[in-house]
Amino acid sequence: MVAPTLIDIAGHRPARVLVVDDEASIRNLLAAILTPQGYEVTVACDGDEAKLLLEQGAFEVVVTDYLIPGRLNGIDVLRFAKETHESCQVVVITGNHGPEVQEKAIRFGAVDYIPKPFSLEIINKAVANAVAISRAA
């Protein structure tokens, strides 16, 4: 007997999650945390790659680092995701813990802001909440 999938349980296709971080170890960790939860995870190493992926298809959730090198930072990714896909929810993660960073992320529409280091439980709750908001929109 095959174990039921997220599709069988929830009656929906798996939520599509885009993870954006310049550190391969963080991208791989987030994919390893989220994939077993039933999410369809795609990773991007910078803002330009994230923008390209967002142009190619819709994601319910984007989890992006605040400080990513290149032309587009995490706030740029957040803004592009929200402009391109209205129901897309963005979770910002960062090692920069200043209150001004959190205020900026929330002001531009982040559904959650998570300082690094983060726990498995916090990431899972944030993404599950973001998926629920995205699907209710």
Topology:
Blueprint: H1 6-10, E1 16-20, H2 24-34, E2 40-44, H3 47-56, E3 61-65, H4 74-84, E4 89-94, H5 99-107, E5 112-115, H6 120-136
Parallel strand pairs: 1-2, 1-3, 3-4, 4-5
Helix pairs in contact: 3-4
Characterise the protein shown here.
The structure is a single chain. The protein is of the alpha/beta class and 137 residues long. It has one domain (11-136): Response regulator (Rossmann fold, 3-Layer(aba) Sandwich). The protein has helices spanning 6-10, 24-34, 47-56, 74-84, 99-107, 120-136, and strands at residues 16-20, 40-44, 61-65, 89-94, 112-115. Strands 2-1-3-4-5 form a 5-stranded parallel sheet, with helices on both faces. Strand 3, helix 4 (74-84) and strand 4 (89-94) form a beta-alpha-beta unit. Helix 3 (47-56) packs parallel to helix 4. The longest helix has 17 residues, at 120-136. 36% of the residues are buried. Mean pLDDT is 90; it is low at 1-9.
